[in-house]
């Protein structure tokens, strides 16, 4: 059994890790931390876990965490980098669901996250945990930077086009719609039901922290710097991200469907839908799947890709577990066979 | 492996059976029927099932179904009774999620369902599939009448009080709130998002078909005919039933919490919450659990019980599988370890 | 023109007052206060008001408010009582949408609101602003205690039965369902979309602050102390209250429909629905109407009343304006002709 | 008083016309038609109208409608064109909320709507009822083709850019999100709460009927044929359209905010938000306003416009009334002073 620690267990990605790991056959959650909820039983905070765990929140402590084989950080940025160096030194594997190790350019990271980075060397050694791109490096990694939710949906949608240099890489558009759970479990007026339900709005149009991360991933795929306009929207639902991607084809022709199917044919968690399909976020609710469709409307030179995930699963906790499975040589789908909850 | 057939696979209980059975280790779904969708792949209708099934809808046919060990009927009333006699004769076990075999008084059934019953003898042999009451009979049963959703939440909430004759059985009140999935997947104006979202209403106050079923179950528990006022409400959510139950205590005193805990201490799917808790339907979303709290507000003589289930799981497909597990001597929780999806 | 001041304009009842008063022909909103938002334009906080107001939040100040003909307090309890005495002295009329003057028994108030009352004499002079009961006293009142949302829906539903002594007053049950806006606009985890959407739960079963208020109103109507079990529920919608009321008829017989119609035949904002109807909260969304139906299921001795309002309108801001109209001799429906937003 | 007839009163645009006209000071609704609901009182179908109308549905009949000054068609395409010629001949003014007269190219119309047009001459005389473009022609018009919902939000967002030739007109992108009421009030599985709530999906990516209408309007503004990719999305809310528009600036520079403000400074129903704002659909819920923001993210050459309306108001019934006001020389805002319902 793999002993697991979770730092920051009171947010939505924390409880989602617990939900998924409860049914993982090879894992034992040993430690879960929260400063504010020390001593509280996890099931008292999250009653869906009643009967599945006998575990209390403890104050984060490197010594205790060192007994774990792997530690997940389900924390705001800045936390993982404060504990990672010592854990790495002690040989503990780390999967950071936060943003501390995602951006390779540390200055750029500082510019967007308004914080000095305290361990740039770990940024260098960290592997960006998108298995569909970096599976081999993940196998040997000690430190995983788990991708953000928007970056996951958006990269998986653009990858086949960019890797094959089929589109004008200078003017990519990602119009993304997220459920409210992306805003986290903190008390805030902006995420109240009365403020978000029965409404739709864009936010962060002038600049959102996932922009540099997406740009980095897409530039890697394109092997040159891409231009990207990224507009996130707050959608009146709890879970789900729908990325609608637009690009101009250099040489408009058929064959995009086959290209996408080929690219992802061995991927257990990317499902290229039949031509003409419109994936729904609910089809992946609770599941680790990304479903993708590709269109060339009116047979024109604009390609449209639709890519949906559950932001808390393939966009966070599920992908983190997928990374863990790969790191520890487990079956990649272990504990992730959940079928989307529909309706 | 147990070979399973499902009659009526295009409704919400049908797809929910498929979702749950996809992760059941001892089961193979061999047949799923639908007259209207013959030849269609189940995953084309329900994309959440993509990658989990290689199965197409077929026209219901007794010969094909006879090869199954057990057949689930996820059909409107009237269908199961038309096929059950022949299947029973051939030794196939039947679990009817519909209403055909729930009411022992066939005349009463006809009065509420406006249909002549075509096999009253099967009604007699059918076991009412509420494991918390009838576990022993379920073990040997060939035909299970799976309880309705409201009846499940309501009976589990009232049972400890009635079995112990603690309340005035003549004036029970069940104020029940159901998500919209209870209305089924048929096209109807009344279940449109624009008609049900952002609104609350009661319906069927003058009389609802679950009334005689609940009354029968409660009367059995009380060992005398009970009086019941049952008011169902349509609630703007997809899944979930919240039963709020009221009764007058004959001899108001403490000890109700202990009574409920004792009654359900060995039940894998009934969770008596700590005193003072308010169960939320979301804590059982997708899960087979019923969570219950009991109150005596202001230390008065009125007892209030709160009982929540997922109408599609413990109120339908999950309970059906629980019955199957018991019938076939499997572990009762097999395939039902799903943790409620929260948030 | 009547000059209006609003104290506490940043909550949901505050913005609802502004929405409704924007179309009131006889009113000019002169002052709106908020300590935290001083100097901010109301339309910057509530963009629905853009183009309708040229008004900024100011710090609450008795001198400024004294220039108003009437001041609405849309504040948490404790605020109105701190400013009311001086305003009353200066002849300003006051309509308190909070709880400070609702409960005539000041000790009882203190017990439920955990606060000493600083002006018990004003409690005595305050008129409880339920026009359907106290219209005459409201005409001459200087200080109105506007009823709570649950109390409004519940009292209007029970009144005809209690005034005519038709029901056992010792065991009344009010099972009430409220939209999330009832929880206010403060940042809190419990009112987040992710915590409240797609779920149903009861709360405050052991005791809720509206209980003594409802009991007081019902006892007045019954002319004796009533016994009441009140269970509020949080419903996944923004606006609306649905009260489902249960009582035992002393002498079960027909005629309840006529009784209700007669009681409310001259009331502009109470709509007794045709027999057999189930009122929906959405039918009063944004409107000042209370819709009521009365049932005697199975011709039994239990009467069921369904009563719906918009908690922010007839349950708060609309009723406050109705009171103002009466106090100032305006047409009672002035500014309140809004039709419910449906769908 | 202007005598109004409404053909097709049982859909969402029909009831919305009734809601808005109930408070219009200069209008009397004399006739409302529905074949299926003949003789039914409008308030029995739409209880929000109780107390506001004394009107029953009648079978559509040209003679009766001829007594009206203006007839609104709130019908599926094909209906208005079957009755319009005779009404026009009799001098009745017509405002068609459907699609029959929107597309000037009748062949193109037939291609998208799969129907022969029966009165192409009326198409020619019809005025496209977007007051922000065609106010002068509307004044004298006898027949108005009221714009579709997506076309309204999208055109108002693109107009200032195209009229001033600031963007590459060959590759416009409109990523549009609509509430479910856009799907109408017909019984359909696809619009059930259980199918649409808690989910997001695109639809009609390969081609949607509003595409040629939007393209026509934008091409007029640009004075040349534009290229447009239009992707509509079904959003889990009842009302609201959010158009997110993308285009490439020919000569990237500041001044877009001023340009938009100038373009719409005299428009009573277009609100250009302060720079940096993100309009929310809820801010216009029930109101006839279109709110717009314009961005140039990262000071790049891509311009992003956010444009929100209530699809049933500025996208249908409200705009129709605005047209009527202009046609009859009434105050343009008459009956349309409704403030958006928020929360």
UniProtKB/TrEMBL annotation, chains A, B, C, D:
Q: What class of enzyme is it?
A: oxidoreductase
What is one GO biological process annotated to this record?
L-arginine biosynthetic process
Which GO molecular-function terms appear in the entry?
A: N-acetyl-gamma-glutamyl-phosphate reductase activity; NAD binding; NADP+ binding
Q: Which residues form the Semialdehyde dehydrogenase NAD-binding domain?
A: 3-141
- Any one GO cellular component localisation term in the record: cytoplasm
- Cite the entry's keywords alphabetically: Amino-acid biosynthesis, Arginine biosynthesis, Cytoplasm, NADP, Oxidoreductase
Pathway it works in:
Amino-acid biosynthesis; L-arginine biosynthesis; N(2)-acetyl-L-ornithine from L-glutamate: step 3/4
The active site annotation covers: 149
Q: Does the keyword Cytoplasm apply?
A: yes
Q: What is its EC number?
A: 1.2.1.38
Write out the annotated subcellular location. Answer: Cytoplasm
Keyword check for Amino-acid biosynthesis, yes or no. yes
Q: Which InterPro entries match?
A: AGPR (IPR050085), AGPR_AS (IPR023013), AGPR_dimerisation_dom (IPR058924), AGPR_type-1 (IPR000706), NAD(P)-bd_dom_sf (IPR036291), Semialdehyde_DH_NAD-bd (IPR000534)
What the entry lists under NCBIfam families is as follows: argC
Functional summary from the UniProt entry: Catalyzes the NADPH-dependent reduction of N-acetyl-5-glutamyl phosphate to yield N-acetyl-L-glutamate 5-semialdehyde.
Give the protein's recorded name. N-acetyl-gamma-glutamyl-phosphate reductase
Taxonomic lineage: Bacteria, Pseudomonadati, Pseudomonadota, Gammaproteobacteria, Oceanospirillales
| Gene that encodes the chain | argC
């Amino acid at each position: 059994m793999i002993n697991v620690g979770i730092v920051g267990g009171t947010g939505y990605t924390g409880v989602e890790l617990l939900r998924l790991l409860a049914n993982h056959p090879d894992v034992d959650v040993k430690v879960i931390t929260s400063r504010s909820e020390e001593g509280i039983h996890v099931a008292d905070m999250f009653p869906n876990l009643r009967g599945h765990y006998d575990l209390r929140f403890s104050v984060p402590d490197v010594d205790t965490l060192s007994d774990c084989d792997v530690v997940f950080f389900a924390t705001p940025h800045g936390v993982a980098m404060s504990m990672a160096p010592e854990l790495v030194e002690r040989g503990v594997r780390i999967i950071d669901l936060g943003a501390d190790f995602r951006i390779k350019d540390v200055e750029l990271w500082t510019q967007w996250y308004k914080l000095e980075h305290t361990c740039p060397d770990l940024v260098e050694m960290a592997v960006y945990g998108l298995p569909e791109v970096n599976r081999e490096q993940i196998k040997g990694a000690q430190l995983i930077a788990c991708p953000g939710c928007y970056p996951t949906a958006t990269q998986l949608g653009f990858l086949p086009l960019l890797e094959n240099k089929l589109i004008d890489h200078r003017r990519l558009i990602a119009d993304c719609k997220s459920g409210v759970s992306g805003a986290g479990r903190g008390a805030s007026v902006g995420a109240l039901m009365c403020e978000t339900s029965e409404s739709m709005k864009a936010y962060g149009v002038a600049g959102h922290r996932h922009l540099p991360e997406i740009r980095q991933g897409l530039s890697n795929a394109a092997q040159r710097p891409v231009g990207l306009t990224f507009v996130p929207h707050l959608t009146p639902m709890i879970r789900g991200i729908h990325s609608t991607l637009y690009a101009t084809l250099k040489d408009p022709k058929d064959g995009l469907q086959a290209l996408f199917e080929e690219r992802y044919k061995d991927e257990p968690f990317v499902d290229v839908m039949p031509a003409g399909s419109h994936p729904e976020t609910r089809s992946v609710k609770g599941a680790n799947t990304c479903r993708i469709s590709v269109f060339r409307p009116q047979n024109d030179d604009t390609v449209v890709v639709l890519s949906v995930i559950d932001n808390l699963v393939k966009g966070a906790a599920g992908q983190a577990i997928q990374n863990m499975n790969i790191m520890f040589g487990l079956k990649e789908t272990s504990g992730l066979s959940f079928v989307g909850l529909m309706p």
